[in-house]
Amino acid sequence: MLGEAEPQWLSEEVKTGTTIIAIEFNGGVVLGSDSRVSAGASVVNRVMNKLSPLHDKIYCALSGSAADAQTIAEMVNYQLDVHSMEIGEDPQVRSAANLVRNISYKYKEELSAHLIVAGWDKRAGGQVFATLNGLLTRQPFAVGGSGSSYVYGFVDAEYRKGMSKEDCQQFVVNTLSLAMNRDGSSGGVAYLVSIDEHGTEEKVILGNDLPTFFDQ
Amino acid sequence: MALSTVLETPGAGFNFDNAARNAALEGLFEGGQTPKPLKTGTTIAGVVFKDGVVLGADTRATSSEVVADKMCAKIHYISPNIYCCGAGTAADTEKTTDLLSSNLTIFSLNSGRNPRVVMAVNILQDMLYRYHGQIGANLILGGVDCTGNHLYTVGPYGDVDKVPYLAMGSGDLAALGILEDGFKHDLELEKAKELVRAAIHAGIMSDLGSGNNIDICVITKEGVDYIRPYQESVYKDDRKMKYKYRPGTTAVLTEKVVPLKLEVVQETVQKMETA
């Protein structure tokens, strides 16, 4: 009774059970995420933006432990700032992904977070990198988080090479909507970030504006 | 060379020494259970309104099933423009907010300006992350600075959320229901105070660990209004008799007087100048 005055979830670690996705198109990338942060069975924040800027044209998508992911993103943000001042120009996406990967690898036993790094640079255009557990691999698109398991089939079947920016945004929104419907730890609103050589555009799609499928 | 602040920059990388120490401590106790720290079952809430931030808290501190303090202050001073509500382990929230407050005071004296809320949040997050959840402090930070009105929450593992309204503590689910229903952007002061009061009241009514009075703290550009208590509990003590015993209640059976022998060892006289 009063001996356990606090519900269990208050002392549990806060996780972003999540769906995150990033996809590259000719000339840029589109990143998407849901907005639910859970601690046990309770939703701690229903509007968290999990797309975190590492630099003007490089973003990362957070998943796993909220504290670990936020801290990695902040550390890499700082390191990239220093690096870009040293080289005197905007950093490469691969550099950002490498910095994230170095932290994930060195502390892989202690940390529990997976960041997908995506952005645009003038040498190689739009790029998406996955950094799970300390690997570094460039992919045409990447999904992550607890909700990604439910949509692997969808993304594998629906992805086509050479999609335009609008096609990619629709692809991301559809994927997020499907995952949020099936995964208990994903939900809320969908955040979208589109990066190309002209700039970065952030968008929020509210719950009732998300695309609906057969049973809704 | 003077140090510009006493904030010592921690060593590079993560420091997990304390996690190993705690794991080692766990094995030392028979039965395998480390003693549980005291927690204040609590309801705390905060709301951003048109001209600033309103923070609210109940005032009950419990020690297992006994109310240890009926008028506990859970809204802590950080700086003239920032206040912090703390839930979780009472000692941790006190010490953490004190440490933050003293560091920010030194910063203010050095730079000549009030600290920004985001600075307080970053320092808290750094510290709590470094201790990996071993410091059981769930904090709601609210304040007004040159960039606007801000409300942040920092969890014990070091995760930060910036939101316009929130509640924490064991009574937070009840309080959050009221906030979700009644919150609008750019509320007027009286409506905001009433919303926070209603939220804390819901927490007090629905949670055994929260109770007694409600404290409210309003922070605006003009200053701080710390109203303690904002609303007193309707269940006040109504003691029917005095608990003092009049002299003679206890009978004296025997009396023995032993005079102390004292001798003067040293005498010094000091004249006072009263000119």
TrEMBL record, chain A:
Q: Which reaction does it catalyse?
A: Cleavage of peptide bonds with very broad specificity
Keyword Cytoplasm part of the UniProt annotation: yes
Domain of life per record: Eukaryota
> Which key words are in the record?
Cytoplasm, Hydrolase, Immunity, Nucleus, Protease, Proteasome, Threonine protease, Zymogen
Q: Enumerate the PANTHER family for this protein.
A: METALLOPROTEASE TLDD, PROTEASOME SUBUNIT BETA
User: What is stated as this protein's family in its record?
Assistant: Belongs to the peptidase T1B family.
- Subunit description: Component of the proteasome complex.
Q: What does this protein do?
A: The proteasome is a multicatalytic proteinase complex which is characterized by its ability to cleave peptides with Arg, Phe, Tyr, Leu, and Glu adjacent to the leaving group at neutral or slightly basic pH. The proteasome has an ATP-dependent proteolytic activity. This subunit is involved in antigen processing to generate class I binding peptides. Component of the proteasome, a multicatalytic proteinase complex which is characterized by its ability to cleave peptides with Arg, Phe, Tyr, Leu, and Glu adjacent to the leaving group at neutral or slightly basic pH. The proteasome has an ATP-dependent proteolytic activity.
Q: What is this protein called?
A: Proteasome subunit beta
TrEMBL record, chain B:
Query: What does the record give as the reaction this protein catalyses?
Result: Cleavage of peptide bonds with very broad specificity
Q: Which of UniProt's keywords are assigned here?
A: Cytoplasm, Hydrolase, Nucleus, Protease, Proteasome, Threonine protease
Using the record's annotation, list all stretches that form the Proteasome beta subunit C-terminal domain: 239-269
**Would you name any one GO CC term?**
proteasome complex
Q: Which organism is it from?
A: Ilyodon furcidens
Keyword Phosphoprotein among UniProt keywords? no
Question: What is the purpose of this protein?
Answer: Component of the proteasome, a multicatalytic proteinase complex which is characterized by its ability to cleave peptides with Arg, Phe, Tyr, Leu, and Glu adjacent to the leaving group at neutral or slightly basic pH. The proteasome has an ATP-dependent proteolytic activity.
Which PANTHER family does the UniProt entry name for this protein? METALLOPROTEASE TLDD (PTHR32194), PROTEASOME SUBUNIT BETA (PTHR32194:SF9)
Where does it reside?
Cytoplasm; Nucleus
InterPro entries cross-referenced by the UniProt entry: Ntn_hydrolases_N (IPR029055), Pept_T1A_subB (IPR000243), Proteasome_bsu_C (IPR024689), Proteasome_bsu_CS (IPR016050), Proteasome_sua/b (IPR001353), Proteasome_suB-type (IPR023333)
How does the record describe its quaternary structure? Component of the proteasome complex.
Q: What is this protein called?
A: Proteasome subunit beta
Query: Which protein family is named in the record?
Result: Belongs to the peptidase T1B family.
Pfam families assigned = Pr_beta_C (PF12465), Proteasome (PF00227)
